[in-house]
Specification:
heterodimer, A: alpha/beta, 7 helices, B: 1093 residues, mainly alpha, 5% strand, Protein CLEC16A homolog (chain B)
Chain lengths: 214, 1093
């Protein structure tokens, strides 16, 4: 499927904060929250539209690889965006953010856009981390912040798309070197045929309803 | 596109509940009816596959009958059928299919379900299916699928993927084919998968990996790392040629460096899994195919070329290079080079290819080797490398004394040629061979197979089966290495004669000890002989060594001379030490220093080997003797390693190294020096290590030299000592920088920017320490930092503690919340109006170094609580154009310790409104003067540090005495628990002095104040002082009592600080009599301030 840019994302954060569920929720919206079904996946891709341009997001979950230093290292470096996720019902996951952030900053490209996500916002009754705390942390470290729920799909779309918008802006400003694929950004195959392709893809992304993987 | 869900509602009779067995049956029906993928039905298929994943996971968590149905109908086979069709939209369907499988394997919790899914081998069929990998989407989903599977591997599930009988392991072999894929995320996934596979530690599976795939995989891995490095080298050369590198090429360099680091970390992760067999193969390939023939070889070329003319060993340099590498090859391979099958082949190739042997520049090679030593700690690799660098000399090659090196290389039976060359088979081909009908004599790898482990094991009648059977666990490798001494001992001795490396490692590698005992036969009688002889020799030598320091001084020059003669024989070490020459620039020197640092700090390198660099000659002999004793009582592989053969006692290059480092430091003390700060810092760090020797006691002898260096650095900084404001700020900022960010060599070696020739301009974006100073300002900064670094070295070597830095000791600062005795102090009442309109009333007090805003203490008359404390030094004062009663003040946080380097925190920026314009002027004057004074004082301190002429020697007096304290008592308390009587006795006179020359401005103008200071304000002027003077003695006791009872309402911070010169609540003791006196002279000054007001 033709696209103007491809952005690679990674999702980081403690285990059990719902990283893979967020991913699946975004890339495959059909998995609606029914019957307490927790379901996630480690990789997914989806097309979105920003500024009239087709942009493909490839999202890689890094779960289960923490044991190997070489792996985490490389993941950070290959990504243009990162979603740093914590669970609002578990304070410890919030407390570990600093470590995650340090890691990310050390290994990643300095231009990587990091978005802070407080997940499971549907579980208001069990909340342990106030929204204001998340906001304060984000402000202090220059991150974009959002509370989401992979279950109700609240803000999930926005989280991924806003991150993409920020990356896109950075490209427009010339901050990102788009010719360097190591940055996690790829220019699409010649999109001179944009007419046809974007028509089809646009429908997919805009409609988004079933639109998993194209 | 095919997203319309209209078909759902159509005539298919879809069950309403999306999570039910009925729904799955219905979907099964769809699959049955659509066995052929076509344009028209692929949307339907995708949707069905998506639903199947969801229902199955739901079923796994809620209803087992769902899964039973799925298995019963063998629905995975439908998946295969769909996959195998080549038609228009197949990739579209395949992607969903793979994602469904991903979801399935990722989310299944029920183990039985998982086993059922895996049991019919469909998954393996899917793994080996040739998808259209040119489609990046398919590729990404496919590799994620493999990775997801690998995360499910354990001792049970491994058998579904690895077939012991057919020797088939598609999950692994298919994945590693993509290890060099152009897409970084794919490469990472492959690495993850391999690591997940290795850590399962299933003996049979690991044997398969080792025998069938390790050689091809590792040789390819190593080959691509090497190719990568050549690319990096080209990039560096390219940049070096251009006067200034373009942004883009620096980015490329960054990526190449990061990629190399990734490789090293990956290799280290494998090695850290501690799988002996695998590690040995990897070690062998790494050493023989990459590290020695490319990295180390690149070190030789230059130095040997220069050497050629003078060397008595080799006249023709081409020959000498060849001789070295060839001999090294022979040595590394050990005896087995005699084996005819390999004898002719490598030699032949070598000669024909000698001229075009790839190499990288010395700079790159030093840089890469530093990274190797910083990251990899696997003993056999780093130790062998370190040995080659430090010990191997030309005579070794000449004499063909292969036996020495033999000890270091466990894999003596190696059949990996020492050469950086392309693997003879592509990985894919090699793997095809492995997975096809097995014959053990595949020509290309017959080496590793027939001569390798298989033969070794069979020749000692060690049936692989037997091994795994004799041990309780499935993993004989990990078990064996942890059992070590007891049950496996018989096994071990059986293997040892045959020199199976795994067996040796079992013996040598005690659990959890990543030691460089790479299979040295410690019980060998031969090495014991060496040991004995060496000891005797050493003892003899010991007697000859000059023992007095005078003699030492005389011999130092000759020592260096001798060492520089000796080093001619060590081509690799010579290159490194030669690179330390900074007379032109420090480009190479920085990398040589990095390498030395990494080498010295690597845990895997034997410390005794490092004595070559770190121990002075005389100490080596004595320490070697000690270790000789130690090793005779408990023979260990370690001591053997560095034990020299009888004829050559261990040569030390300590003096030479120190002299080189000294030269760098000396050079950096010159005004127009080309030595960057980072280079200096690294050489200072190394010098400290090298001068301390092994025992740590030898540092004193270098103290005079260090002192001379310090004087020179002070002289350099003195050039910039001016009395303008900026010097002081620079001085303090630089101090904070140096103390806050000690050099991190690992981070330094991650920075590709240092690979570019040293630059001057800050516009390059290179950090200040990593480039040369540009302009006068930066030269001053550089000089100051140079001074700090060298001074630190001097202090550490002489064992002195730092007493003069940082300039402002945090201790004397009043803390917010402190309760201060302000009786008879200068106080100016004022209103503080902030931008947002908030209004506060405070009293302004000023001491030597700080501006303090206080609020009256409600409990004690004349006391105040500090509400805000800022430094006078950084105070910004501005009059108000409209209202003469007002001042605009910006108050900064005091610089305390290392935190001072933070961007100066503004504590308060506000308008101060005084009662009238006289008060306002007085305050302005006082603050301005205070600011100047506090800066002058610090400048004097700096002057003393830099030995500026006219500055007196550093006084013992405290550096700051708070204004409203008893000056005589404001001294550093060195010991606690002074006698009460002494304290009181000392305190009395001081109380008297407190009253001297203090003007009290205490105005009662606001209504707020009157409530608090009703009584005190009445006597708030001069007339009050006689009264309080008379009350002085009792007051002391009151205060002390107050402290003793430690009022909860008035936390007294000073009390808990051991070395404070707390202005108010001072306990003192008798040892401070000197400071008492020395502080006297400065008193008039303070008086002066007051008098002007």
């Amino acid at each position: 499927m033709a696209y103007a840019y491809l952005f690679k994302y990674i999702i980081i954060g403690d285990t059990g904060v719902g990283k893979s569920c967020l991913l699946l929720q975004f890339t495959d919206k059909r998995f609606q929250p029914v019957h307490d079904l927790t379901i996630g996946v480690e990789f997914g891709a989806r097309m979105i539209t920003i500024d009239g341009k087709q942009i493909k997001l490839q999202i890689w979950d890094t779960a289960g690889q923490e044991a190997f230093r070489s792996i985490t290292r490389s993941y950070y470096r290959g990504a243009a965006g990162a979603l740093l996720v914590y669970d609002i019902t578990r304070r410890d996951t919030f407390n570990h953010l600093t470590t995650w952030l340090e890691d990310a900053r050390q290994h990643s490209n300095s231009n990587m856009v990091i978005m802070l996500i407080g997940n499971k916002s549907d579980l208001e009754s069990r909340r342990e981390v106030k929204k204001e705390e998340g906001e304060a942390f984000a402000r202090e470290h220059g991150l974009v912040f959002m509370e989401t729920s992979a279950k109700t799909a609240a803000n999930v779309e926005e989280a991924f798309i806003n991150t993409a918008k920020e990356i896109y802006e950075k490209i427009q400003e010339g901050v990102f070197d788009i010719n360097n694929e190591a940055n996690g950004i790829k220019i699409g195959p010649q999109h001179s045929t944009a007419g046809g392709a974007s028509g089809a893809g646009g429908a997919g992304a805009g409609g988004a309803a079933g639109g998993g993987c194209c | 596109m095919f997203r319309s869900r209209s078909w759902f509602g159509a005539s298919w009779g879809r069950p309403k509940n999306p999570h039910s067995l009925e729904r799955l049956k219905y979907l099964h029906n769809i699959l049955c009816k659509n066995t052929t993928v076509s344009e028209s039905n692929r949307g339907t298929l995708v949707e069905s596959l998506r639903c199947i994943a969801e229902i199955l996971i739901w079923g796994d968590q809620n209803d087992s009958s769902v899964f039973d149905f799925f298995l019963e109908k063998n629905m995975l086979s439908y998946f295969l059928k769909i996959m195998r069709q080549k038609c228009g939209g197949s990739s579209y369907v395949c992607v969903q299919l793979l994602q469904t499988l991903n979801i399935l394997f990722e989310n299944i919790r029920n183990e039985t379900s998982l086993y059922y899914l895996l049991s019919n081998n469909h998954v393996n069929s899917i793994i080996v299916h040739k998808f259209d990998f040119s489609d990046e989407e398919v590729m990404a989903y496919y590799i994620s699928f493999l990775k997801t599977l690998s995360l499910k591997l354990n001792n049970h599930t491994i058998h579904f993927f690895y077939n012991e009988h057919t020797k088939d392991f598609p999950l692994y072999t298919e994945a590693i084919k993509f290890f060099n894929h152009s897409e970084s995320m794919v490469r990472i996934a492959v690495r993850t998968l391999t690591l997940n596979v290795y850590r399962v530690q299933d003996a049979s599976m690991l044997r398969f990996i080792r025998d069938r795939t390790a050689a091809p995989y590792f040789s390819n891995l190593v080959w691509f790392i090497g190719k990568h490095i050549l690319e990096l080298d080209a990039c560096v050369r390219n940049d070096a040629e251009m006067s200034f590198c373009s942004h883009q090429s620096q980015q490329k360099l960054d990526d190449l460096v990061a990629e190399h680091l990734d490789h090293l970390h990956y290799i280290n992760d494998i090695l850290c899994l501690n799988i002996p067999d695998l590690n040995d193969v990897l070690t062998e390939h790494l050493l023989h195919k990459l590290l020695v023939p490319l990295y180390i070889y690149s070190l030789t070329s230059e130095s040997v070329r220069r050497l050629a003319a003078s060397s008595p060993y080799n006249r023709d340099h081409i020959q000498s290079i060849e001789a070295i590498t060839r001999n090294l090859e022979a040595i590394l391979k050990g005896k087995h080079t005699e084996s005819p099958s390999r004898m002719t082949f490598p030699r032949h190739r070598m000669e024909s290819e000698d001229e075009i042997k790839p190499s990288v520049s010395c700079v790159v090679s030093l840089f890469l080797l530093s990274q190797v030593f910083l990251i990899i700690t696997h003993g056999p690799i780093v130790h062998a490398l370190a040995w080659i660098i430090l010990q191997s000399d030309l005579s070794v090659f000449e004499d063909g004394a292969t036996k020495i090196l033999e000890m270091y290389i466990s894999n003596a039976k190696s059949n990996v040629k020492l050469e950086f060359s392309k693997p003879q088979l592509s990985l894919e081909k090699a793997l095809e061979n492995t997975s096809s009908e097995r014959d053990y004599t595949t020509p290309e790898y017959s080496g590793s197979k027939s001569f390798g482990y298989d033969t070794d094991q069979s020749s000692c009648d060690l049936d692989p089966e037997l091994v795994s059977n004799s041990l309780p666990s499935t993993s004989h490798i990990s078990e064996a290495s942890s059992i070590g001494h007891d049950s496996t001992e018989d096994l071990v001795t059986q293997i040892q004669p045959v020199k199976s490396m795994s067996a040796t490692t079992i013996k040598e590698n005690m659990p959890d000890s990543p030691l460089p005992d790479s299979g040295i036969d410690s019980s060998s009688s031969k090495t014991n002989e060496y040991n004995n002889i060496t000891d005797e020799e050493k003892q003899k030598l010991l007697g000859v060594i000059p023992s007095t320091s005078a003699e030492r001084a005389v011999t130092l020059e000759s020592l260096i001379e001798r060492e520089s003669r000796e080093i001619e024989k060590r081509p690799f070490l010579k290159t490194i030490l030669d690179s330390l020459d900074c007379s032109e620039n420090d480009y190479k020197a920085l990398f040589a220093l990095c390498l030395l640092f990494a080498l010295i700090n690597n845990k895997g390198v034997n410390t005794e080997l490092l004595d070559t660099l770190l121990c002075p000659e005389d100490e080596i002999t004595s320490s070697a003797q000690e270790s000789g004793v130690a090793s005779s009582s408990a023979p260990s592989g370690d001591t053997q390693m560095s034990s020299p053969p009888p004829k050559r006692p261990l040569q030390s290059f300590n003096a030479l190294l120190i002299s080189k480092l000294m030269a760098i430091t000396n050079l950096s003390c010159k005004p127009a020096s080309k030595v960057r700060l980072v280079t200096l810092e690294l050489s200072v760090t190394l010098m400290r290590v090298a001068m301390c020797g092994a025992g740590g006691g030898a540092s004193a002898r270098h103290a005079p030299a260090a002192d001379a260096l310090r004087a020179r650095a002070a002289a350099l900084a003195r050039n910039f000592y001016k009395c303008d404001d900026i010097f002081l700020d620079m001085f303090e900022d630089e101090y904070c920088e140096t103390s806050k960010r000690p050099l991190n060599v690992e981070w330094l070696c991650m920075d590709a920017a240092i690979l570019l020739p040293p630059t001057r301009t800050p516009m390059s974006g290179i950090a200040f320490a990593k480039r040369l100073p540009s302009g006068e300002m930066e030269r001053a900064r550089r000089a100051i930092r140079t001074f700090f670094l060298i001074r630190d070295l001097y202090l550490k070597l002489t064992g002195k503690s730092e007493t003069q830095l940082p300039l402002s000791n945090p201790a004397p600062f009043v803390q917010v919340g402190d309760v201060l005795d302000l009786n008879d102090s200068d106080l100016i009442s004022c209103d503080i109006i902030q931008k947002d309109g908030t209004w506060q009333h405070r009293f302004l007090a000023v001491d030597h170094i700080q501006i303090i805003l206080v609020e009256p203490d409600k409990q004690r008359l004349g006391w105040g609580v500090a509400k805000l404390v800022g430094s006078l030094q950084d105070l910004e004062i501005q009059g108000d154009k409209e209202d003469p009663r007002c001042l605009h003040l910006t108050i900064h946080k005091p610089r305390v310790g290392a935190s001072g380097a933070l961007p100066r925190t503004v504590l308060l920026r506000a308008k101060f409104k005084f009662d009238d314009h006289i008060r306002s002027m007085a305050a302005k004057q006082r603050l301005t003067k205070g600011r100047t004074k506090s800066r002058q004082k610090k400048m004097q301190q700096i002057g003393r540090l830099l030995e500026v002429s006219g500055m007196c020697a550093p006084a013992l007096a405290p550096r700051h005495r708070p204004l409203f304290a008893r000056p005589a008592l404001a001294t550093v308390r060195r010991s606690t628990g002074g006698d009460d009587d002494t304290e009181r006795r000392l305190r009395r006179p001081s109380g008297h002095m407190l009253k001297d020359g203090i003007v009290v401005y205490r105005e009662r103008t606001t209504s707020r104040e009157s409530s608090v200071s009703r009584s005190s304000s009445a006597q708030g002027s001069r007339e009050g002082s006689p009264r309080s003077r008379s009350e002085e003695i009792p007051m002391e006791d009151i205060k002390r009592n107050a402290v003793a009872s430690s009022l909860a309402a008035t936390p007294v911070v000073q009390q808990c600080q051991p070395s404070t010169s707390s202005p108010l609540l001072k306990t003192n003791n008798s040892s401070e009599e000197t400071s008492f006196i020395s502080s006297e002279p400065s008193r008039p000054k303070r008086k002066g301030i007051v008098e002007t007001i």
